[in-house]
Design a protein that fits this description.
By secondary structure, the protein is an alpha+beta fold. It has one domain. It has three helices and eight strands. A six-stranded antiparallel sheet has the order 6-7-4-1-5-8. A hairpin with a 2-residue loop joins strand 2 and strand 3. It starts with 25 loop residues before the first strand and ends in an 8-residue tail after the last strand. The mean pLDDT is 91.
Amino acid sequence: MPEPLPYDDARNVIPHDSREIVDDDLLIRGIPEGQIKNGRISSGAFRSSSKERDPHRGMSIDIEKIVSEESYQSGPYVGSVQFAVSIPRGHSLLVGCDPLPENEAHGQIWRVEDGPKPMTGGQTRSIHRSCVWHVEIEGVSIR
């Protein structure tokens, strides 16, 4: 049975590390057209959300073992990449469930050292370098 999710007063999921998401599981990051620069995926595709958009500064992902065809097709993405949960966790990041009404597979990656902060450049580069295609974008390189 999934663990109950922690919420703040504004009903945002609080950063947490979900026990049911194991290090060998895969995470999917959707790539919007605006994050393709000069024939490759921009490093900006792996940055944390702004404080205005998400007070906990998470990076949205989908949890591959939960993804359904319907949930995957939600969002403005032209393709997607995947990487193992062990990559962000190896950089002291939390990986947790954050289901949305239109996407039960939605989750977040959070950096929570002394409060919510955006991921560091080293953390985002490590995720970017570890990616492989989930849904390839023709004519585009991951790096």
